[in-house]
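The protein record quoted for completeness.
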Amino acid sequence: MKRAACLILSIFLILSLAACLDQDTLPYIPPVTRKSNNINITVDPRVELVSIVQYLSQYNQLMTEANFSYRSDVDQYFDQYRDHEAITMYDKMAKMGFIFSSPATFALGLTDSLFMDDDVLIPTHILSGSGGKDQLKDFSQALRDFSRTSNFSGFYNEHQDYYRENLLQVFTFLEQRDYDTEVQNYFGMEYNSFNVLPVPLYGGGGGFGPNVERGDSVDAYCILIPFDDETQGDVPLYGDKTVFRLLLRHEFSHSFVNRITAMNLDEVMKYEHLLAPIQEDMDKLNYGTWVTCLNEHIVRAVTVRLAYADSAREGSKALYQELDEGFVYTRVLTEALKEYENNRDKYPDFISFYPKLLEALQ
């Protein structure tokens, strides 16, 4: 009798555990993707979900102002979920600083079922801007519930053709160029993958250059923000070939420069006084801390040197554009990078040259 009771209890516990696991397991959503050379062009369902949550929230600094069918579909389909916990939670996190690149970068570190991946290194700015790791765990749980409750997988799958139209536009800009080889050779570092992610609901033009770091493996990303002053058919425009070349070099370079700056943070902060003369201009561009300001200057100096590799005319044009936009230290950093390029036997990678690059700021 006792044996039968134990058996029944064991079956009950197994079924209960299976039910709990099933509640937290989301249907797998295959990303819509295509490849150009070694670059993956993808509408990532995790990033797309987070962009919809941002769109439904009160946050509007990054969201599109253009009118196109996909935006209308989001309005119509998700309107009834505007009071969902994921939306209200994001509103609070946005006020703490969980904005710009942070939400999409966080999404890239989630599993397919939107759990936080313990193997992924969470950047400091995401932890500080979101309220900490526990808050991020709560947010990921809210995202899972939002995805399940709204049947996000159904919405995503119904719009695969639209996502492919976005990918096609980006694909034509790549021109079969080996951007991944170019930046890896320049920095002397190898990454696991290079990915371009157009996000239709974002607006204002430009992009972000996050990376996802798992142990010794790094995946580089360029999150594309469309220009929302016009569309190509029903798809927002992501620029043209010239803009795209500069943008891709810029954002992929961030994946290297930001990490190397973090490795040299103590030395970097010795030059913090250089922010004061340009503080007002950097604040307007949302680069108001010395670390973000320095990263922007170094990335822009690198893209200038890559433009010089195309032609002297393109390099000079790129340099004066950066100076005109207020990045006044770009010139001295650009000059310093010539020493790096001409002495790769001494400086096999950007990490080894970085302290020398900082010295140029003196």
